[in-house]
Amino acid sequence: MSLLSNLIVRIRGDKTQLDSTLKSAEGSVSKFGSAVKRVGGVIAAAFSVTAIAAFAKNIVGLAAQTEGVKAAFDRLNNPGLLTALRTATRGTVTDLQLMQKAVQAQNFKIPLSQLATYFEFATKRAIQTGESVDYLVDSIITGIGRKSVLVMDNLGISAVQLQKEIERTGDFATAAGNIIRSELTSMGDVADTTKTKVASIKTAFENLKTGIGMKITES
């Protein structure tokens, strides 16, 4: 239980304690996985059968969903991509979602080399507007992939601004990318908010559950 209790941290302005705690939690997945079979009695004593069954179903379901997505992501053959996307989204989007969006970007022919930049923009815009990061990450992939001016408006990129850049470059994706990089530069530093810090804790726990499920299904 100490692993879970360590996730309940006092949110501080410099985020140092939070980042340290999340890193420790993520690094504990493999150790937890090897000990799963030995803690059954302790868990049973602390939770009801229904709660244990629901938790087990949840983590196994996450593992099953992740398995296929991870296989597709691995085929992208871009070893540093997941780490870059975690950094870009400040740990607020689960690994499963990041891998899904990377695969979707590949299918839409969006350059993977630009993905971290796009996700950083979506994250900063989410902080500024109060939207969730995963919603704007989804919007940036869908908007560029489907050439949707309406969806790009979710990110604060106006139809007029986008249309002018499309006329100049002759390509929707290139135009959107140019605007995103320009907007990102003008934003400067954007500080984390309580909302992003709480999202980081939630994401770390979801990643932890997925890791546990993967270990269980490997057994």
Account of the protein in words:
- There is one protein chain.
- By secondary structure, this protein is mainly α.
- It contains 13 helices and no strands.
- Helix 7 (95-107) packs parallel to helix 9 and helix 8 (115-129) packs across helix 9.
- It is globular.
- The chain starts with a helix and ends with a helix.
- Mean pLDDT is 82; it is low at 1-13 and 36-40.
Name the descriptors:
219 residues; mainly alpha; disordered N terminus
- Annotation field: number of helices: 13
Kindly, what is the distance between the CA atoms of the first and last residues, rounded to a whole number of angstroms?
Answer: 22 Å
Note the main sheet.
Answer: none
Note the overall shape: globular
Low-confidence stretches: 1-13, 36-40
Beta-strand proportion:
under 5%
| Proportion of residues in helical segments | over 70%
Structural Rg: 19 Å
SSE string, helices as H and strands as E: HHHHHHHHHHHHH
Give the overall pLDDT as a whole number.
82
| Number of beta strands | 0
Structural class: mainly alpha
